Amino acid sequence: MLNGKEKICMVVQDSMVKGGIAAVVNGYHGSYLEKDYNIIYVESYKDGGKVTKLLKGICGYIHLAKVLLFNRPDLVHIHSSFGPSFYRKIPFIYMASWAKIPIINHIHGADFDEFYANASGKKKELVRKVYGKCNKLIALSEEWKERLSQIVPTDRIVIIENYSILHEDALCDRLNRPCNNQVLFLGELGRRKGCYDIPNVVKYVAEKLPNIRFILCGSGSEADENAIKKLVYKNRVDNNVVFKGWVRDGEKDKVLREADVFFLPSYNEGMPMAILDAMGYGLPVVSTNTGGISKIVYDKKNGICCNPGDVETMAAGIIELLTDNQKRNDASKASMNIVRNGYSLESHLEKLQELYEEVIHAEAVNRRMINK
């Protein structure tokens, strides 16, 4: 063990940002991670217009510069993704590198092909250069470790899955109440999350269960939201779909408790916090076998896991879970047990602390070798 009060500078999003990165980091607040380490949070991004995002980014760069100059952290832990997030994080990585502070880059990205595999040679070179300045990369699953190994050596990649908070009382209530015929989606409304498939799935399910309700909690671009709503009306299932927008706190807790099945038809994922959140409430899950999902959704055990775009299998799985009380209850209990046995916040933080200690210890050894 280290002395327990090493300084960790963590580059994060504003806590109110919509999405999985903020959800992961928000669980750190008030945890024993903050008791064991001196965590300095540097916010780099917030939702809003271009000017709001630009000003937030500039403030983040200035804040990190002050931390590096006056607080001299032992480690910089950066939460990043692909796309614009990658470019926003480049100055943070370079500043920490120039200050000779070890860097952990926590990769939450999902579309690896667009980001790297199918990118131009120039972009690939930039990605390798930037990631090469990081002492360790955190991958969310074994599949993502394999993908990231195209950029950096595997010994610099550590798997730390996302986590869930257990709500035992929600599972107890679910097992002891009638089925509401409610299917819940949480996330960004767009193609990557499979939302263009949802209207067809609803159509298939509604043919068997006319009173089914799909509760879609999330937001996306105006174009995506309008296109998905048009498909809902085209399939004549508008009475079966509720668009609630982005939910958080008490409203999010309410929809998770009232739902009977969680549905995420994604095409690209890392380790989605939305599924882990749902499983922490004891919800059966119907999803796809992309990214790390198949590590937490076991087909025919705690739900249905099928190929992206297979709307008929998804619909059949939802119908089966809603109409067979025993299967639904067994799947609910299985979801809770999977989280309890391997995806708790405590387990996540233990792995994170082990990585902190490894990186800080290795840096201390390197400095002693240099000073000899």
From TrEMBL:
Domain Glycosyl transferase family: 181-334
Pfam families given in the database record: Glyco_transf_4 (PF13439), Glycos_transf_1 (PF00534)
Record field: transmembrane: none
Molecular function terms from GO: glycosyltransferase activity
InterPro entries cross-referenced by the UniProt entry: Glyco_trans_1 (IPR001296), Glyco_trans_4-like_N (IPR028098)
Domain Glycosyltransferase subfamily 4-like N-terminal: 56-162
Name of the protein in its database record: Glycosyltransferase family 4 protein
Originating species: Candidatus Mediterraneibacter faecavium
